[in-house]
Design brief:
- By secondary structure, the chain is an alpha/beta fold.
- The protein folds into 2 domains: about 220 residues, Glucose-6-phosphate isomerase like protein, domain 1 (Rossmann fold, 3-Layer(aba) Sandwich), CATH 3.40.50; about 170 residues, Glucose-6-phosphate isomerase like protein, domain 1 (Rossmann fold), CATH 3.40.50.
- Helix content is about 45%, strand content about 15%.
- It is built from 17 helices and 10 strands.
- The chain has a 5-stranded mixed sheet, sandwiched between helices. The protein has a 5-stranded parallel sheet with strand order 3-2-4-5-6, sandwiched between helices.
- It is globular, with a radius of gyration of 23 Å.
- Bound molecules: 5-phosphoarabinonic acid (PA5).
- 5-phosphoarabinonic acid binds next to loops.
Length: about 450
């Protein structure tokens, strides 16, 4: 097995190698603060040694629970929002056949999502679809009180009970939540659902390697042991004693902070494989929610290339020079597809005959990188040997560890999210939720 690789040399020219090396002491302080639990938000460091702390009993429990859902469901609805669904979706999409939902001969249930929006049409269409399906529910909320998933859970639990009867439904609902607090815990206890606990010390966006991510990923038929093994490899590769020069999370954190100081205010995560789209969404949450505070923080964006080269490509090449890119590159595709020769060559593509599609994709990747650097966009690259559970596990932990270090370098608490509350308060005031009378009066005076 190899490790994922980080290349930062294409940022030099925009920032100096010496300036990045100059972060050594500060990064060491950041790593020490994380590992000693003295950084801001130190109550939320449970993710740090998570990969090496998952034991056989936990794997067995997750796999046994996944089997019950796999054996009894055509569709499993994962209910959750933010960190309570993005990690699972990122991994499941990254590993699934791109046309998974069209496969008729299925080995695994289709995993769909609810509670990540309040779209009435979305919920109506989902419930219509589920009328003819054997389905189960994994309801995920750390707080157990978030409105979007709570609303979806009430609708879908009712539907499941009506379709299957209360006793059967009880066996097809799994709750993942706080060990004692919140409405979801109360419901799970009263109804007797199978439950998994989200530890207090692990925030939502760092929870993909807990049952929050692992149970849905196992239900979808993927190897959670390999995912965690990959993450454990990266836990060791980025440990406190690893020198700055060899620690890719430390290097990434240093480079992106130096770029930020030099006016690069937006980081774009780039992929050249469409199944990584939701990995970009997971990464956006990880960095956006961790660093965007106190009037600071790199804005995290994501694009799917080559698709978005035909839309956002113009802006990236010639727009305001405040951006840099981090490219996720997959060294070896999982399948081989060779271009055929055509005698008539009507499309003029015979120069590609005999080449793999991936070779064309790789030349697009290289050509784009050179063009964007020429256009004033520093490029970082993270290379995965292959797209599989093991390397995705490495990638997840690499970004998590770098995020912890990077937040420290930026001087923020990377583990809270006070800004998420503002919209909730207004929504509750507008919906006249009991307890929000004063806010209701204040907000109504403004509209
Ligand atoms: O990272 C976070 O903490 C958030 O994105 C939460 O995961 C999200 O708001 C959902 O919260 P909860 O799991 O409490 O429903």
């Amino acid at each position: 097995m190899q490790n994922i690789k980080l290349s930062i040399d294409k940022a030099f020219g925009f920032i100096s190698e010496q300036s990045v090396a100059g972060y050594k002491a500060e990064v060491a302080a950041a790593s020490a603060a994380l590992h000693n639990g003295t950084c801001k938000g130190s109550d939320f460091l449970g993710w740090l040694n998570l990969p090496t702390s998952i034991d056989e009993a936990q794997f067995a429990d997750l796999e046994a629970t996944a089997k019950i859902l796999r054996d009894n469901c055509e569709v499993v609805v994962v209910i959750g929002i933010g960190g309570s669904y993005l990690g699972a979706k990122a991994v499941i999409d990254g590993l699934s056949n791109s046309f998974d939902w069209l496969q008729t001969e299925r080995k695994s249930p289709i995993v769909v999502y609810a509670g990540q929006n309040i779209g009435e049409d979305y919920l109506y269409e989902l419930q219509e679809l589920l009328k003819t399906k054997k389905f189960g529910i994994i309801s995920i909320s750390k707080s157990g009180t978030t409105t979007e998933p709570a609303l979806a859970f009430r609708l879908l639990k009712t539907q499941l009970e009506e379709q299957q009867g209360k006793d059967a439904a009880q066996k097809l609902i799994v709750a993942i939540t706080d060990k004692s607090r919140g409405a979801l815990r109360t419901a799970a206890t009263q109804e007797g659902y199978k439950t998994f606990v989200i530890e207090d010390s692990i925030g939502g966006r760092f929870s993909v390697l807990t049952p929050v991510g692992l149970l849905p990923i196992a239900v979808a038929g993927f190897d959670i042991r390999q995912l965690v093994a990959g993450a454990a490899t990266m836990e060791a590769a980025t440990a406190l004693e690893i020198p700055f020069e060899d620690n890719i999370s430390a290097q990434y954190a240093a480079v992106r902070n130096e770029l930020y100081k030099n006016g690069k205010k937006t980081e774009i995560l780039v992929n050249f494989h469409p199944k990584l789209h939701f990995f970009g969404e997971w990464w956006k949450q990880l960095y956006g929610e961790s660093e965007g505070k106190d009037g600071k923080g790199i804005f995290p964006a994501a694009v799917d290339f080559t698709t978005d080269l035909h839309s956002m490509g113009q802006w990236i090449q010639e727009g305001e020079r405040t951006i840099f890119e981090t490219v996720i590159s997959i060294k070896e595709s999982n399948y081989t597809k060779i271009f055929p020769t055509s005698e008539a060559n009507l499309d003029g593509l015979n120069f590609l005959a005999g080449k793999r599609v991936d070779e064309v994709n790789k030349m697009a990747e290289l050509g784009t990188m050179i063009a964007h650097i020429d256009g004033g966009v520093p490029n970082l690259k993270v290379e995965l040997p292959k797209l599989n559970e093991y390397y995705l596990g490495q990638l997840i932990y690499f970004f998590e560890k770098a995020c912890g270090i990077s937040g420290y370098l930026l001087g923020v608490n990377a583990f809270d999210q006070p800004g998420v509350e503002a919209y909730k308060k207004n929504m509750f005031a507008l919906l006249e939720k009991p307890g929000f009378e004063a806010e209701t009066k204040a907000i109504k005076a403004r509209i």
